[in-house]
């Protein structure tokens, strides 16, 4: 981006862009996003904004002041939007950053206040407005659009990541071998292997597999099965000699082969086999 950072050396500027590039790795780049606006003739502060790709009248809304210092502002913004799958950029363009009074509420206990002020002290009220307010006139539609954008920000920043739908892409091509995969487990399902279950001398032996869903640092999802090596005497109960994988556990795969690509309810998964730990 051809953004000018005021009174910043090229070394510090490079550090800032490197920080943002690292933070944005694996983020959704074709949807809405967060912006840091550099100081301008209206404020000495770096400020944080949100760009709503679907908004017609006011795509950009103000969220918060950051700091006077560039690096401190970047660090603060990254911390504030860390829960989001959306990217964070920095810009000096202010063309679309004005609401022209459309965000002033004309009724209720917050009458005369800007939606941004209300969002800061009572975000759930703004979410309620976005859901329940029935706009009639053009100005009311513009007002509701801004409320909807703030509601999206609140949901995006304060909904825990494990309850969000990850944005995953297919990795590689079926048949490819992958090496040195660092993954975080997001789901574990226990399942008996019906082909290995057997009865010997009146005792039933179950081989209980763990079907694992995991995610990499680029938000790509993987499916693979950890096959039971030891038997269990109960269905869907792991052997006491088997490691029970847990959600949020980090694992390292030395190698794996891509079996196929699967899409379930619009979410893309890469199915792995021939796993080596």
TrEMBL record:
Entry-linked InterPro entries: ExoX-like_C
Chain ranges of the Exodeoxyribonuclease X-like C-terminal domain: 105-131
Protein name (Swiss-Prot/TrEMBL): Exodeoxyribonuclease X-like C-terminal domain-containing protein
Organism: Parabacteroides chinchillae
